[in-house]
Design brief:
The chain is an alpha/beta fold. The protein contains 12 helices and 12 strands. The longest helix is centred in the first third of the chain and has 22 residues.
Length: about 350
């Protein structure tokens, strides 16, 4: 019956190939590959869509996280409270900035950072809370914003998986003091390579991040500051992302329809509880909870159905952090049970039927 791929990006590329080729041709004909008009246009569009005043295009979502932290002056001696349930970069970039990652456990229903547990971790050294919108569902940004304001600390958003998500009509990326975006190819809006962005409404921070992304460039030719990394976005990725953004609404509609069918037809105990009223979940990944995760995964694979695990190890158990980590039982159980099913706009109805039927058999 053939393989049901976990993700097949070639289907999306074929659908929009003429537009993508045209956009690439424009860049090639222009001879401008860095610091060009496509990057400026993309930054303006990202700022508009996230409700921020400024956006800075950078080389990747990982670079965006590091620049976000450094742009707000976070470094040695600072603590940043974050979630153990995310991709490694969320915590690794805290360490890369020279700060200490402090982990708080997750909410058992949303899998996002639990605000009350985050608040309990605040100390005199806490500089920020870095919240992750895991799997495309916004975290409880309203409570986290209140907590951050009460303690006089920053609220920063890792919106790598949450682009276009919102709470009460307000986009993620605008609830915090700044946010990191990712356009890794598998994201809901993905580049044809790697790319990311930082968004903020603070003009000075935006300018600082722009400088840091180009080795600390001061604006004076050949003069650089002491800090900075090489993390510029190139003109080609900006042009291709502008094409993807034009189609993002229709792609999201397809994604949500597939996710809704999973919600209806999967075993209810496996399905994550619905988002709270007013929360727009963009369903970046469709993740189920199953105590017999590995057996189910093997059964699906035997029938040609690919799955992934996001994520197998909670961040506080990674080697960089394990020596000082405290137990976080909810996150540890989450990591043992989660399984990601195929979910992307070009997954066919027949393929999804095969996934559902095989799960019922398993």
């Amino acid at each position: 019956m053939g393989v049901v791929p976990f993700l097949d990006l070639s289907r999306e590329i074929q659908c929009y190939k003429p537009e993508l080729m045209s956009a690439a041709g424009e860049v090639l004909d222009s001879g401008v590959f860095l610091f060009g008009p496509k990057i400026e246009e993309l930054e303006q569009e990202l700022a508009r869509r996230t409700g921020a005043r400024y956006a800075v295009g950078v080389a990747s979502g990982t670079a965006a996280l590091e620049l976000l932290l450094r742009g707000f002056g976070i470094g040695a001696g600072d603590e940043v409270i974050t979630t153990p349930a995310s991709f490694y970069a969320s915590a690794k970039m805290i360490a890369a900035a020279g700060a200490t990652a402090v982990f708080a456990d997750i909410d058992p229903d949303s899998y996002n950072l639990d605000p009350a547990k985050a608040a309990a971790r605040i100390t005199a050294r806490t500089k920020a809370i870095l919240v992750v919108h895991l799997y495309g569902r916004p975290a409880d940004v309203q409570d986290l914003r209140t907590i951050a304001d009460r303690h006089g600390i920053l609220l920063l958003e890792d919106a790598a998986q949450g682009f276009s998500a919102s709470v009460d009509g307000r986009p993620v990326g605008s609830w915090g003091d700044g946010a990191a975006l990712s356009f890794y190819p598998s994201k809901n809006v993905g580049a044809l390579g790697d790319a990311g962005a930082v968004v903020t409404s603070d003009a000075a921070v935006a300018e600082h991040i722009r400088s840091l992304s180009f080795l600390g460039y001061t604006g004076e030719r050949d003069r650089f500051g002491a800090e900075g990394i090489a993390a510029r976005m190139d003109e080609m990725q900006a042009a291709l992302l502008l094409v993807k953004l034009r189609h993002s609404s229709e792609l999201l509609e397809r994604r949500l329809a597939i996710a809704a069918r999973y919600d209806r037809e999967l075993p209810p105990a496996w399905v994550r509880r619905p988002a709270k009223k007013g929360v727009c979940d963009v369903r970046h990944l469709y993740v189920v909870r199953c105590p017999e995760r590995d057996r189910v995964r093997e059964r699906l694979l035997s029938q040609g159905i690919e799955t992934q695990i996001h994520y197998r190890f909670p961040l506080h158990r990674q080697a960089l952090f394990a020596a000082t980590a405290e137990p976080l039982p909810i996150a540890e159980q989450w990591a043992r049970e989660v399984l990601s099913l195929p979910l992307y706009p070009f997954l066919t109805e027949g393929e999804q039927t095969r996934v559902l039927e095989t799960i019922q058999q398993a």
